[in-house]
Amino acid sequence: MRQENDIESANPITLILGIETSCDETGLAFYDVEEGLIGDVLHSQITLHAEYGGVVPELASRDHILRLVPLFEELLAKTGKTRQDIDAVAYTAGPGLIGALLTGAAFGRSLAWALGIPAVEVHHMEGHLLAPMLEESAPSFPFLALLVSGGHTQIVSVKSVGDYEILGETLDDAAGEAFDKTAKLLGLDYPGGPAIAKLAEQGNSERFTFPRPMLNKPNLDFSFSGLKTHVLTQVKKLRLANEMDKQCKADLACAFQDAVVDVLVKKCIRALKRTGFKTIVIAGGVGANKNLRAELKAGCESIGVDVFYPRQAFCTDNGAMIAYAGYQRVLKGEGGCENLTIAGRSRWPMTELT
Ligand code: KG4
Ligand code: ZN
Fold it and tell me: Whole-structure pTM over 0.70, yes or no?
């Protein structure tokens, strides 16, 4: 997407390098102010963490360190750019795993310092939130956003970049976390979201009906930890009855997914009706879920609301969204060459952004 560069500066910003290392994906990308996204590279640590059934923070940090330089070289080769072409470096400064964040921060700040260009901190969830802006058909402000990732489940009112109000959020597990924990209970591989979604395709949605937590509460908050307990109780019962076969797992996966999707969609529709927004954006890893995308689209069509989401690959963590969000932060005058502090924030409420 083209954007005017309205920074009054002797060295106008044209090319921004985005770096994402907040969890288990090392992602780098170039966002060009004239041409939009011109290249992105990604290394997923799925196989590294698979045998542990979840992300091991120390292993994640060590792997980011190994991947950053080769991925950077790959991005340069892929796009034909040189280090000197880069005008600013944007990196995820939080929220996320602190060790993992520090690898990207150290790499980004050092590179910027060596090149004499500004470095800017990016909020990971703002990256997710703005990811649909990278698409050909991008939403315009204001809009409602459903942020659903491994660590967050939030309904956010977005008036403009930095003007965020959380209208509802999970009181316990995030939607992605519930997918991951439920997958573990069913003996599926990490990450659980895609594994459950795949298995659910073979499931019979009529066999089990799971509760819809918080749906009878008038607010826009969520709670997913009870669902996971419900799965556990079912699994125990079915095991005792010797009925826990492959089909049974698929039926449970299907019932679980239906319940999560149903609650997310109904709360979004409620939020849309209350706020009057005519646009909704869905972002974050769980946003890759096909059923969620389809159900939300169907529900929104019925009330005349347009739905926008990033391409599947940009629902989960990536460097492209960080490069784009970084550019928006640079436009706000953030980032600079003076600050040489390498820091990250494991917790960072999005409402602290301006
Ligand atoms: O945004 P993300 O890549 O990382 C965080 O910022 O947390 O989200 C990862 C989460 C994981 O919990 C993963 O299981 C979930 O997104 N996820 C999915 C799907 N793909 C990824 N959940 C449901 N269906 C999917 N297709
Ligand atoms: Zn994420």
Answer: yes
